[in-house]
Amino acid sequence: MNLKTLKKLTLSIPLLALLTIPVQSMAETFTGKLNGHGCAHAGTTCPVDRLDPHIALESDFVLQKQDGDYYFLSMPRSTKVRYALEQVQVTGELNKKYHSIDVNEFKVKKNGKFKLIWSKELQRRELDSLYNSEKYSAPIFLN
Description:
143 residues, alpha+beta, five-stranded mixed barrel
């Protein structure tokens, strides 16, 4: 093998190694109304006049785009319940197979601007703070 061929081979090996790495999906931003799954599936908006009792009947809440398409959101239901029927913006990775978004950030529109309400990072920091607190006492499980 001559020196020129060896140089080409040496340069192409890292490139080939990069091609074998799976491509990571990029986070995207989605905007829409947070609607009950049952209502979104039926093509309606949850009833504003009976919203509180209706929320108890909804199994989950979805981000519904203006065209009626909707996505399940992988985040706490308790957060979604508080912002039902509001304009929201989520950033995360779309899973087309399950029509869901692995949410990294959840924002709600307030006074014309989207305000960060929940994120994986904020939740992680809160958990760290809670478990590192001297006041925190781990639950005791009895058999």
